[in-house]
Amino acid sequence: PSSAAMPLLRVRTKDGTERLQVELEATLFAVRQQIALQFKVPLEQQLLSRSVQAGIASRKGEAFGAADDQTTLASLGVANGDIIFLDYQMERENTAVSQAYAKDPFVNLVKEGELRSQGTAQWTLTNFLDYRSSKEFVLQAPPEPHCKFARVDARAMNALMNYMMLSGFRCKRVGYLYGRWIKDDGKGAGVQVDAIYEPAQDSTADDIKLLDDAEGEAKLAKVSAMLGLVRVGVVIAHPARDYSFTVDEVILASKLHAAALELDAEGAKHFLTMKARPVLDTEEGIEGVATVEAYQMTDQTIGLVGADAFSQSKTDPRVAKAAKDCVFLVEKKEQRKATMEHFIARVFDIADPFESKLSTGFAIENRPTDPQTTHRMGDYLRSRRGKESFLRTVADLHLLIFLSNLLDMNADMPVLCANICQEKGDELDGFQMMINCYAGID
Questions:
Q1: Which of 50, 102, 178, 249 has its CA 20 to 30 A from that of 230?
Q2: CA-CA distance, 372 to 127, in Å (whole number)?
Q3: Helix (H) or strand (E) holding 12
Q4: What is the pLDDT of residue 135?
Q5: What's the rounded Cα separation, in Å, for the pair 363 and 369?
Q6: What is the predicted pLDDT for the residue at 116?
Q7: What is the rounded distance in angstroms from the CA atom of residue 216 to the CA atom of residue 401?
């Protein structure tokens, strides 16, 4: 096979990290032989071990045994760009120390005093190469998403889409997806979206700006919990363009995903990032003028964002620029910039029809063109009177959050939400009288 197709391994030793290019179908024993030839470490001294991912860094894992020698690297789960650990007793010189490092961007970190700031007074070659290896991020094709499908209430999504279409998709808009983590025997793990909350924001066509709204977020957290809902994702609506995500959008989605993982490490693996956008004139086979897509940020992306490993390029919003002490490794080549296809995984199955027990009809929070008021609530209640039960009318996340300003959050709201969840419409008479009174309805 050509060298371009040959996998590259990173070999971590007591003398630093070195690189080893191996044959496509190489066995572990072939790798041992190549190490003996290239690194001058005799077979009898070699102890090879797997690497285990610990956040964005790698640590030594289980040692390979003699029974693994005739097994291919692919069968052992070792892929291009992976780290393996090599232990030995002998003294030797790291073969990676060559003229190639003369132009290495990490050398500048030594000259500029950056490494001293890490808290180590004197850096050995081993320390430096290990530090350097921890700042190299191998970017490959994204893995399959954890989330296999999404069921989204059409009324909730249409409420956002209609608002964006009325405004001509002039500015970006963010919505938080609230629902449940679900499983389907035939599909696997997925997400159910019952409602979309639009946080306080002042975004433009180019940038998302979420505003501080601690009071609003606290009400949202309490009411959604009373309804048995959790934040299962985020939707980003944006003007027409010919690419999927800006880097800043990926960073925002990754931070929201990470926050969800802190609350539920297992369920939040399926945290969803959706896009609402206009259909381009050049796109064929997509009906309508606007469409919705679903993605997930990869585990690697979430880790890199948490480490502030990259930022958006000042000249191109599609391009990620590595932090000054980091590099991306793409197709075995170090580079400081990368595009977003490595960072996201598409979730294709989002078409299953789904209708939540919650409706979406009341004015949606934080929209300047349609503020939530008691007068607006009166219009909403009157428009539904006689057409549906009061249970259906009041079962609206946006209305319930507004009602939390009028009813007691600790005494009334838990009872009201429990009756909604249990569909006990005959126990809502007292609430109906109070709410009608606030709305000015006899």
A1: 249
A2: 59
A3: strand 8-13
A4: 80
A5: 10
A6: 58
A7: 9
Tell the residue number behind the tokens 């507004």, with chain if given.
402
Listed in sequence order, the residues at least 6 apart from 309 whose beta carbon sits closer than 8 Å to its beta carbon are 56, 135, 137, 322, 323, 326
Give the list of residues 6+ apart from residue 124 with CB closer than 8 angstroms, or none: none
| pLDDT tens, position by position, 89-131 | 888 876 655 444 544 555 555 555 555 566 555 666 666 667 7
Q: Which structure tokens are listed for 68?
A: 């693994």
pLDDT score for 128: 67
* Displacement of CA 338 from its chain's centroid (Å): 17
For tokens 């925002």, the residue is: 252
What's the burial of 159, exposed, middle or buried (CB within 10 Å: 0-12/13-18/19+)?
Answer: buried
Predicted TM-score (pTM) of the model is 0.75
pLDDT tens for residues 335-392? 999 999 999 999 999 999 999 999 999 999 999 999 999 999 999 999 999 999 999 9
Distances (CA, A) of 422 to 34, 163, 180, 191, 426: 67, 31, 16, 21, 11
Q: How far apart are CA 418 and CA 179, in angstroms?
A: 16
CB atoms within 10 A of CB 250: 26
Report the C-alpha gap between 14 and 255 in whole angstroms. Answer: 35
String of DSSP letters for 41-84: --GGG-EEEEEEEETTEEEEEEEPPGGGTTSBTTTTT--TT-EE
pLDDT number for residue 390: 96
| Alpha carbon distance 5, 331 (integer Å) | 9
Cα–Cα nearest to 85, from 26, 134, 16, 150: 16
| pLDDT < 50 regions, the chain | 1-4, 98-100, 102-103
Q: What is the pLDDT, as a whole number, of residue 96?
A: 57
Helix intervals (H) in 243-298: 247-263
C-alpha span between 354 and 155 (Å, rounded): 10
Q: Which helix (H) or strand (E) holds 435?
A: helix 429-439
pLDDT of residue 121: 57
Cα–Cα distance list, 84 to 87, 91, 116, 139, 418 (Å): 10, 19, 27, 17, 54
The whole-number pLDDT of residue 107 equals 56
